Amino acid sequence: MYPTKVEVTEVGTRDGFQNEKIFIPTEKKIDLINKIVASGVRRIEATAFVSPRAVPQLVDASEVIAGINRVPSLRIACLVPNHQGLARAIAAEVDEVVAFCSVTESHNQTNLNRSIEESIEGFESIMKSAEKTHIAVHGALAVAFGCPFEGDVDPSHVASLVNQLYAIGIRNITLGDTTGMATPPLVDRVVKTIQDKMPDVKISLHFHNTRGIGLVNVLAGLSAGISRYESSIGGIGGCPFAPGASGNICSEDLVYMLGEYGIDTGVDLLSLMHCAHQLQGILGRALPGQVMKAGLRTRTFPLSAVKRATR
Ligand code: ZN
Fold first, then answer.
1. Segments forming the whole domain that contains residue 120
2. Which residues pair with 101 in a beta bridge?
3. Which of 20, 89, 280, 309 is the most buried (most CB within 10 A)?
């Protein structure tokens, strides 16, 4: 009943890195991205073309993109908030730009300093400019499963925004659980409300593990037939409204779980775990990822290594 294939989009070097206060050297970002790509990931939201004043960590977006090995079938996506960002993304020759807004006015105003209507007008003009290039436009809706300012969001309101993006030609749309408010029944409701109205929209799900049920939400998405998920290496990322909370769902943990269901992700788990350890070395602290700590479930230990067995 689950899809047989799932596409995992790595977002750690964007969603995770934007929360990192200490600047990560550009060559370390590039090396990590190339190793993630070498592990088999074929879509990566590598960085964002946002104001360097707002997010100094991502000031090197163009250099990062220029350093990525363009292996066949790899799609490099970048977040763009406006036309300046789009122009930089076009110059960097990314494959996709991600245009985003929130599903609530208060979150959109706080995050982007404009109304939802103004954001959607911006999407339209981004679509027009991107049409002249070979760059695809992917839409992303933040706080789709709940808003830290407005609480619960009506699924039919989310569907109506998806419909507005659809009307301007956007077919690939991410539903972002920005502050980790999604639950499995809610995922089911939101996804089905959209599918009922627009069966040909390609939905991606972007969960945060803020309340510890990120991977359970993935199972709810799989049950609803969704085969695209966004995750971050080592589970990095954060939630501005839940201090100390875990970040995005963790890429290695996701690939591990999907693999146990026999779902093909095309990603080599051990290679991805190496990437998580490399990132842990870069950031110099323990990361939230679990499989990177425990190892594969079939990992065994020599009895002689144990002083006294637990009984
Ligand atoms: Zn996120």
1. 7-305
2. 141
3. 89
